[in-house]
Amino acid sequence: MTSPIGSEALQPNPALQPLAALVGEWQTTGTHPYMPGTVVHGRTSFAWHEGGAFIIMRSEVDDPRFPSGVAIFGSDDQAGTLSMLYFDERGVSRKYDVTMAGNVMTWSRDEPGFSQRATITIEDDGAAMVSVGEMSRDGGPWEADLSVTYTR
After folding, report:
1. For residue 70, what are the contacts with CB-CB under 8 A and spacing of at least 6?
2. pTM score, two decimals?
3. Each residue of 108-140: pLDDT tens digit?
4. SS3 assignment, position 82
5. Domains, the chain, ranges and CATH?
């Protein structure tokens, strides 16, 4: 029997270790400023992928107005950066820059037509995370976007 192609690369990526606290299953509740008074419920999972070379995120929300999505977190060792590639059921795909400092992760994209950023704070016990989203359209001011609380 032969080994799978590329199996030597299926190993933990040390650059992703700061994101290890995300790994697991989360229940989510979220609010969006365009839907005042509405709380949406869903699920998100973060899992090591390809032996730890990447982290994969999968998310779904019970409200059909919010898309199910998938994302892959990876790194550029030479640049010392983290990135997230996102895709959802609408066919939307985006690249986000990711940073992790202590218990605070951010992902952001700065594009002329539509920019987004989210700041995710992981509670000290790791049992919850709070994400505050913001968006900017056509270079305008930043405004509130989807905010999500994740609980284990």
Report:
1. 56, 57, 58, 59, 86, 87, 88
2. 0.93
3. 999 999 999 999 999 999 999 999 999 999 999
4. strand
5. 10-151 (2.40.128.20)
